[in-house]
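On clarity, I found the account of how folds are encoded harder to follow than it need be. For illustration, here is how one protein appears when written out as sequence plus structure tokens:

:::
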Amino acid sequence: MRDRIFDPSALPFFVLAAGTAFVAGLWTGTARRRRRADLLGRAGEAAALAALGGFLARTFVSLLLSLGRDSPAAALAVGWGFFLWPGAIDTFLTLVGVAPLFTPTVLRWTATAVGSFIGMADGFGRIHRWRGAGALTFALDVTWGLAGGTNGCLIHLFNFARAVREDAPRSGAHRYFNGFRIKAGYAVTMGAVMSHLPAHSGDLIRHERVHVLQNRLFGPFYTLTYVGWMAALLFPALLVGLMKGAPGRTVEDWCYVNNPWEAWAYIRGGWLDPARVWGRIAFRAVAAAFFAAALGGFGWVVWQGWLR
């Protein structure tokens, strides 16, 4: 087990990631005409976090897979829970009779690459408050919160040269004005990356910061139940919406507005039309039934992948 978790073959990658992050930090800072001290500080932090992020993410995923004896069930669960897209791809491949693409070895290297990218971006942005809880928030972002972090990396790539990034050091998250969005007028937060924020958006930032916290605290449970809630309510919402003559609005109300994770975030910031919010009794009943089923599903996955 020790050889699988602490694989020395990854060491050259950590060195390469650190070097790439340092050079990229210097190049980016020079293009933005930063002062020399600030330039070297950002580049150095990016290099250190790129290596550390890759190491922590790889170690975490390797440990999970090794505890699951590198079984197909454990690999599929890790793919879904900590990266999302590999789980979806391998599920589809399995259904059509094709061997999974994301084997334990591929998942380990995926974790290494994602963790290094998160670390590099966090170093560029200097988002973590090291004199406070920065060490903990960074560690959570590259381990327990990897699913959100993976999607956050995709937002970084999409927003590169497309969006204006707010320089908000030690704020705990990245902030992009404009950039990637799902719907006009709405911000998007994945992992510790906020996108499509309007100017002067203090109230909305408080809302989005709740999503950053949710990802760090609840990890795969947050990501999968957020998506699962939308998937579970999509068809009934569409049917009711068609009967009411407002399918789009009904789907948004059921799948997004009344999503429990969003309800929590709206307590901290943002505004919703009260007419679109379910009554307290209905909301609690549906949420309780959904999360009870979700907990049962998570328990079954843990049993299949690690305890059986």
Summary: The beta strands are 164-166, 174-177, 188-190, 193-197.
